Amino acid sequence: MTLAIEDMIARFGPVAVLVGAAVEGEVTMLLAGVAAHLGLIDFTGAVCLGTLGGFSSDALFYSIGRRRHAAIRGSWIYRRVGPAIEALAGRLGILQIALARFIFGTRMATMLLWGMRDLGFVRFAVVDLAGCTAWAIVLGGLGYFMSDSATALVGRVRRVELWLLGALIVAIVLFGAAHAVSRRRRSLRSGAPDDSKAA
Prior knowledge:
Layout: H1 2-12, H2 14-23, H3 26-37, H4 43-67, H5 69-73, H6 76-92, H7 95-99, H8 107-116, H9 121-145, H10 150-190
Helix pairs in contact: 1-2, 1-3, 2-3, 2-4, 3-4, 3-9, 3-10, 4-8, 4-9
């Protein structure tokens, strides 16, 4: 994956940064910083395109949240993670939109949530563009100033992402198992037939 992104940036330059920032994100911006250090692309241009790419994907999820809020609220995944994201939004307010780029695993859910809350697009865009700009500068700058260690840095980012993904999957499985056991115990205590055997 890393080599493919690096090859795309080398071949297609700014277009690859724009698309990569929209689709993948962190690794793209690190490698864009490295490419800027090597003189393959302009650093300011890379930051601007990274910001635009990041904002475009955020705006897409915001729009989905705004148009499909009823279906999302009724989904099983929202019933499980929605309260936690809502609580975070309650503590951070609109600032959550800008910070989501720096908190792994919260960006998509955050953009959906604020679309569901009927936040006006102009306010959303102002806050999200600020967050995307800061994100593009920080990651692009890391790649630029640490270009000699970029491969190791990208490797570490990927390892952390994989560990977090693994931890999330384990947590979901454990939560599901605990919920099933708890439901079974309640069913046995009340003497009601178990849902799983009814049919």
